[in-house]
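Incident log, structure service

09:12 report received: a user says their structure output differs between two submissions of the same chain.
09:20 pulled the input from the user's history:
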Amino acid sequence: MVQNDDEAWRAIVDNYGDRADLDDPPEAASQTPERQPRTSPPLADDPEPDDVHGWERASEASAPTGWEDEDRFVPPPPPPIPTTTTDRMAAWVGIFGSPLVLLVALVLGIRLPELISYVLVLGFVGGFLYLVLKMNREPRDPGDNGAVL
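09:34 re-ran on a clean worker, output below:
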């Protein structure tokens, strides 16, 4: 039974990517009730040591021809990375940087002076309030119901 499985796998690998040759056109094939299944080509009895499983070496494998010459899709250049103003950047640094500094100091056991701790907390709260106050209050499109196509 093991020999039959090996032969079956070898036949699959040998015929991988081959297209089936149909004897009859599709209309005639649908009219014939019984058809005999195609048999795989005979296998080599003594494979070469480098070709034990029926695979080609990478150097022997041939690339498909013709596809290199086709026109390929070239995507447009990406849009530039959006930038922000200095005041908004300072607010974001206050929102993310202040808690990060406090957390690192807490984990490492560093005792910060009270003034620096208060400045970091004030930077977080001030940055948050600044960004909330600068948010656009109007919808992007008055007729927009939220659906994106």
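09:41 both user submissions now match this output. Likely a transient worker issue. Closing.
09:42 reviewer note: The mean pLDDT is 77. The chain is about 40% helix and 0% strand.
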